[in-house]
Amino acid sequence: MTSAEYQQLVELLTRQATGMTRQFAAVDRRSDEIAIGVTTLRQEVLGHFDDVHRRFEHLEEQYQAITKALRWRSLPAGRDAGFDDVMPSGFTAACPAPR
After folding, report:
1. What's the pTM?
2. What is the biggest distance separating any 2 CA atoms in the chain, rounded to whole angstroms?
3. CB 56 within 8 Å of CB 33
4. How many whole angstroms separate alpha carbon 33 and alpha carbon 57?
5. Which of 14, 33, 41, 69 has most Cβ atoms within 10 angstroms of its Cβ?
6. pLDDT per residue over 49-99, tens digit each?
C-alpha cells in the first residue's frame, strides 16, 4: 500500500467514523426523549391510580355509612341504646328509629 493509498484510507475511515458519531448522537437524543416521555407517562398513570384510589376510599366510606345506617334501622325499638356512638354525629336525628 502506497502512502497516497494509506492517506485515502485514513480519510475514508475518518469520514465514516464522523458519520457514525453523528448517528450515535442522534440515537442518544432520541433515547433521552423517549425516557422523558416514559417518565411523563408514568407520572400521569400514577396520578390516575391515585384518583381511582381516592374514589374507592370515598366509596368505601359511603358503603360503611350505609351499612351502619341499615343495621341501625333494622334494630327493634328499644334495642338501639348504645348504638349511637357508632353512628356519625347528627345521623340519628336525621334518621329516627323505626316504630
Report:
1. 0.49
2. 114
3. no
4. 36
5. 69
6. 999 999 999 999 999 999 999 998 888 765 555 555 555 555 554 555 554
